[in-house]
């Protein structure tokens, strides 16, 4: 396995030609992530916390099997109840961290995408010294607004959107067969 960033891409070196890894390009890309650095650190913290919380249930189940169940047979089931409660708490904590993980991921990803769109828009708005500026129509802006709203709705509420799409897809063949009769 090759070292360095080009080794992670898995590309055949002969296909890359004379392309080189440019530090300036990385700096330009990281400039878009800079406003989200604290959220990125929080996101990494959540990932570490999820990994640690996921270590807990197997350890608890080992204790339940090795210690709590034999004690419970003797009449003392307090340890079993405590360990079972801790297992439920670990599951709830894992679910809460998953929600925070998804929220941070969406917030960072959508923020970077928005910033990139703004940068492209600003680039397109500033005409070159000799070039004529591009003309943007209302239809383009309406399409962009609809796409943005749909992206946000699907990102925030995916289940209702998928359920509605599934119901519409199930109803479609029935409508087609009834129309042909």
Q: Assign the structural class, choosing from mainly alpha, mainly beta, alpha/beta, alpha+beta, or little secondary structure.
A: mainly alpha
Percentage of helical residues?
over 70%
Number of helices: 8
Average pLDDT, rounded to a whole number, is: 79
End-to-end span in angstroms?
63 Å
Task: Using the CA coordinates, give the radius of gyration.
Answer: 27 Å
Net shape: extended
Helix/strand order, N-terminal first = HHHHHHHH
Count up the domains: 2
Percent strand:
under 5%
Number of strands: 0
Low-confidence stretches: none
Largest sheet: none
What are the key terms here?
single chain, 181 residues, mainly alpha, 8 helices, extended
Structural commentary:
With 181 residues, this protein is an all-alpha fold. Helices cover 80% and strands 0% of the residues. The chain has helices at residues 5-9, 13-16, 23-33, 37-53, 56-73, 78-125, 138-156, 158-180. The protein is extended and about 90 Å long.
């Amino acid at each position: 396995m090759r070292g360095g960033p080009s080794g992670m891409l898995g590309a055949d070196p002969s296909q890359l030609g004379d392309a080189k890894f440019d530090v300036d390009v990385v700096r330009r890309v990281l400039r878009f992530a800079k406003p989200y650095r604290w959220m990125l650190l929080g996101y990494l913290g959540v990932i570490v916390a999820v990994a640690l919380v996921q270590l807990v249930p197997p350890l608890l189940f080992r204790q339940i099997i090795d210690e709590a169940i034999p004690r419970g047979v003797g009449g003392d089931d307090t340890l079993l109840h405590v360990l079972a409660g801790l297992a439920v708490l670990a599951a709830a904590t894992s679910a809460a961290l998953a929600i925070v993980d998804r929220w941070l991921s969406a917030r960072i990803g959508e923020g970077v995408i928005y910033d990139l769109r703004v940068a492209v828009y600003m680039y397109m708005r500033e005409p070159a010294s000799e070039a004529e500026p591009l003309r943007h129509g209302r239809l383009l802006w309406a399409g962009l607004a609809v796409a943005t709203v749909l992206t946000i709705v699907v990102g925030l509420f995916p289940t209702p959107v998928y359920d509605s799409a599934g119901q519409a897809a199930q109803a479609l063949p029935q409508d087609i067969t009834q129309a042909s009769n």
